[in-house]
Amino acid sequence: KQEVTQIPAALSVPEGENLVLNCSFTDSAIYNLQWFRQDPGKGLTSLLLIQSSQREQTSGRLNASLDKSSGRSTLYIAASQPGDSATYLCAGRQGGSEKLVFGKGTKLTVNP
Amino acid sequence: GAGVSQSPSNKVTEKGKDVELRCDPISGHTALYWYRQSLGQGLEFLIYFQGNSAPDKSGLPSDRFSAERTGGSVSTLTIQRTQQEDSAVYLCASSLGTSGRARADTQYFGPGTRLTVL
User: Fold this and answer.
1) What are the helix (H) ranges across B50-106?
2) Do residues A21 and A108 lie in contact, with contact meaning Cβ atoms separated by under 8 Å?
3) In whole angstroms, how large is the CA radius of gyration of chain A?
4) Which residues contact A6 (CB under 8 A, 6 or more apart)?
5) Rounded distance, CA B115 to CA B118, Å?
6) Which residues have C-beta within 8 Å of that of residue B8, sequence separation ≥ 6?
7) Which of A49, B37, B89, B96 makes a 20 to 30 Å CA pair with B23?
8) Residue A20: how many CA atoms within 13 Å on its side-chain side?
9) Neighbours of A64 (CB within 10 A)
10) How far is CA B35 from CA A20, A107, B32, B47, B115, in A?
11) Alpha carbons B93 and B35: distance in angstroms, whole number
């Protein structure tokens, strides 16, 4: 059974800092991994999706990596801004299954 | 284009009553998912629909929960005889469908329905 863990649960950084959010999963037979952000009281916004055959994906200031052998994914945020403050969730999808298994998220606060 | 929409945005009900939650997926998306987000529990998968195939109901927590998808578009999640532990945010998502391509696999979420059972 796939389990997804995100550490730390919360992170506070000053504006402008580069940061890395961590996601680990127990089953390396992962089909893809998706990163989302969730603002308070809102739904999830998809940020990046990495297929199992890929090692990384980039969108603007965001870069997500996937290392299946170590069971880890990271989300790198460059030059953080107060608008980046949100909860970031990672979710893995197994081959042969359509459901996403979510971590509990990292709550990021970027201080001006 | 329009995103995934859900209604109502908030629902307060009394224990023992039935509730229906609605999801309108993105037009053209063949796959539809329901998830539940509870305090301290994170997001849990409930049910998945893909086209005309039989739904994957493996995440439904009890037989009080059911869902249907009419005409391959709108979906309704029904909870019968609600209990206080059913209180959560119910999220719906849709995707183009499974094809191994990132754009098709990406799930797009609605704003959710916050259910409170008194």
Assistant:
1) 102-105
2) yes
3) 13
4) A21, A22, A23, A24, A88, A89, A90, A103, A104, A105, A106
5) 10
6) B21, B113
7) A49
8) 7
9) 24
10) 27, 20, 10, 7, 13
11) 8
Closest Cβ–Cβ partner in B98, B100, B108 for A98: B98
> Which residues in chain A touch residue B31, judged by CB atoms under 8 angstroms apart?
98
Predicted confidence (pLDDT) per residue in B61-115, tens digit: 999 999 999 877 899 999 999 999 999 999 999 998 755 555 567 889 999 999 9
- Name residue, tokens 């919360």: A10
The encoded tokens of residue B9 equal: 């945005």
| Integer-rounded Cα radius of gyration of chain B | 14
Do the beta carbons of residue A95 and residue A101 sit within 8 Å? no
Closest CA to B53 of B92, B97, B22, B20: B97
Cβ of A102 within 8 Å of Cβ of B42? The answer is yes
Contacts (Cβ under 8 Å, ≥6 apart) of A40? none
Distance from CA of A54 to the nearest CA of B (A): 11
Query: Cβ contact (<8 Å) for A93 and B31?
Result: no
